[in-house]
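In the design runs reported in the main text, the only information available to the sequence generator was the tokenized backbone. The following block is the verbatim input for one such run; it is reproduced so that readers can re-run the procedure and compare outputs position by position.
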């Protein structure tokens, strides 16, 4: 009974209700060509565009969709803008992790009151399709959380965006929704950012991995996972840990020139089909040694998938008390060893594949060594 009351109270004090990830916006060097990659390789559909043809003079943005995932690719058309400075410093990377809310004004006020650094005051933006309210706050590095309230809008994306003049035919690969987005922060900064999500955004600490859980000889890191009240938004935060050689998180921070988004995990309905298709289209994944599969079933127990398929495609398996999950990681998707993707299929499990970390990090180290960054 007391617990029920407590839970009710917790609900009442969720001062930042979030409906999900609204979109993820990248600042990139050439949005036109990146959009081609996401359409042809990943099967996203181009649904909206903004740029000189729609009256925007300083940038071009392409909006891509697949089921519940929306990516925006933006390139600066002018020198010295926030976008071009960001790209010069970080290379291609995530600028906005934008959250879908019912009230962007309240989201801004509640978080700023608790210590968030404002990026954009609540602003009404409108066109012939209605209006939206957008506000934004800073998080780690130069990454921003936008709050998007769009219940009074029915255009293709947001005001200022138009349906594209041309959109190529694409074949989706079964990407369903953003499962989690991981941030890499500098030495000793993990707890600061966990506290930020707890105090400023009302998130709860879900899980902790220390360097004993996830260190190999070299690629040590520490990680904590925070989640919002309804569990729709999960943000693991990594920091480097001491190892014999350079931590993979340190390599990221060196090349990104600071903290930023390390990987975006996307949930799929059939990982074997999705990964098979992505490989056919040229997406590169981390290599997993054959020996991983020798004893994986001893560790995770019975699974529905054929082990040979998992081995052929280098898909990893892990189990927790609620079920199991299948996952795989791409190599970085830019020339800098920064952002990569995770493909994950959850079969009950709500965790993040802790049992795979060692096998995975040994693979990451092999890649780091090839790049000369160990
Ligand atoms: Fe992940």
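Verbatim output:
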């Amino acid at each position: 009974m007391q617990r029920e009351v407590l839970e009710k109270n917790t609900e009442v004090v969720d001062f930042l209700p979030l409906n999900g990830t609204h979109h993820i916006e990248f600042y990139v060097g050439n949005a036109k060509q990146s959009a081609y990659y996401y359409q042809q390789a990943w099967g996203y559909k181009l649904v909206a565009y903004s740029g000189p043809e729609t009256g925007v003079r300083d940038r071009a943005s392409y909006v891509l969709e697949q089921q519940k995932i929306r990516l925006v690719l933006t390139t600066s058309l002018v020198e010295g803008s926030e976008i071009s400075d960001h790209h010069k410093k970080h290379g291609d990377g995530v600028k906005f992790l934008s959250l879908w809310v019912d009230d962007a004004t309240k989201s801004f006020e509640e978080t700023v009151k608790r210590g968030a650094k404002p990026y954009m005051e609540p602003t009404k933006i409108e066109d012939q399709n209605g209006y939206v309210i957008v506000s934004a706050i800073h998080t780690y590095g130069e990454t921003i959380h936008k709050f998007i309230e769009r219940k009074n809008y029915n255009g293709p994306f947001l005001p200022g965006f138009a349906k594209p003049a041309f959109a190529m035919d694409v074949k989706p690969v079964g990407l369903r929704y953003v499962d989690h987005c991981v941030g890499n922060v500098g030495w000793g900064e993990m707890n600061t950012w966990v506290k930020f999500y707890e105090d400023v955004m009302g998130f709860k600490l879900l899980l902790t991995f220390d360097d004993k859980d996830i260190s190999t000889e070299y690629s040590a890191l520490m990680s904590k996972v925070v989640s919002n009240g309804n569990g729709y938004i999960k943000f693991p935060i990594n920091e480097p840990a001491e190892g014999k050689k350079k931590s993979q998180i340190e390599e990221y921070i060196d090349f990104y020139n600071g903290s930023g988004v390390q990987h975006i995990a996307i949930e799929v309905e059939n990982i074997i089909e999705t990964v098979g298709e992505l490989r056919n289209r040229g997406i590169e994944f981390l290599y997993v040694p054959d020996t991983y599969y020798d004893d994986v079933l001893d560790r995770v127990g019975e699974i529905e998938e054929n082990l040979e398929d998992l081995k052929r495609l280098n898909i990893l398996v892990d189990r927790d008390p609620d079920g199991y999950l299948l996952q795989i990681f791409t190599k970085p998707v830019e020339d800098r060893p920064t952002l990569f993707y995770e493909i994950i299929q959850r079969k009950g499990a709500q965790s993040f594949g802790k049992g795979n970390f060692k096998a995975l990090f040994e693979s990451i180290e092999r890649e780091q060594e090839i790049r000369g960054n160990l």
